[in-house]
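WARN no homologs supplied; continuing
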Amino acid sequence: MSSDTPLVAVSLTWREASSAARGRASEPVGASLYEGLRAHGVEGLVELHTCARSMWLAATPQAPWVGALLQSSIAARIGGEALPVIHEGTAAARHALRVAVGLDSYVQGESDIGGQFLAAFDGARADGHSAVALNLLHQSAARLLAEGRDAGFVRPNRGLGQLAVAALLERGVDLSVPVAILGAGAIGARVAASLRRAGAAPPVVYNRTPRADTRPLDTVGEGGHVAAVVCTAAPWRWFQPGPELATVIDLGQPAQVVAGPNVLGLDALLAGDPLRLPEDRLRAAEDAVEREIGGLLARVRTIHWQRSLAGASSLRDQFLDHELDVFFAEALGALSEDQQRKVRHAARGAVRHYSHRMLTWIKHELAVPEENG
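OK structure emitted
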């Protein structure tokens, strides 16, 4: 691992594991596991869980060991069905930024993942799980997302909602008949927006919690729908479609719909080749990620050297304040108190002058970056 990048990323996506396994993996890291990771050198931890992936980002100088610990813990959680992928050091930062701008998504360039990525860092900070390297990565992701929106390689209105609508069209669903959306959360809102952009009839939203703009979940069968998109997040399969629903798309995590021939789950929805960005935008995205990686490495390196030099200065001050007099005690015993004071003062000045020259030499010889450089 590059010592300039004290990060490790552990990733589990639709490529490695089923939606059921990803659902089990998405259980948040508890306090006991987090404290255990801290005992092994973890300085901070960010968890990202979406419909198609889970990712754990840890700031640690012990990336190989911490990555193996996280990997084994997650594999045990999902019963050994799949082995999460480990990325260490600079590769972890690169993978994280590619995830943030949608380069690792099924729909490349999707904008939804960027917001979820930044929100995961905000959550880690709120929980007291952040760290300097993670904060710098968060800032890099925010800059990259802003650049991507301007350059067009981060595409608004692309993502799971659009994918669900495309699946409805592929199955010949008549979108002039209102589609039922089960769940009024963020995913449901994205599906509704995608239906509007496709020119579909206004969907009808059903929700467990009563709201003025939704209908009760138990009245879905009364709506005259021929298709439904399920966007809830119950811990088990709860929805049994009626015969009137010819097509049901289950975007829930874990699965929400009792399996049947008319049900399309996440695993099937994400099968096949990813929907790629146009070649020019794909190159622009990859180039932007590499430029941001270069800047991130420089910022991490700056902080690393500043900490090292500050540590050396602290050791010098500790020596002068608590240890220097011990070395002079016997030699100064025959001198007057005034003479002892002058010798100690001169010795402290000599040590400070010498250490200043040494630290300055190290800074220039090894090209230690300035704080604002």
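The two ends are 25 Å apart (CA to CA).
OK
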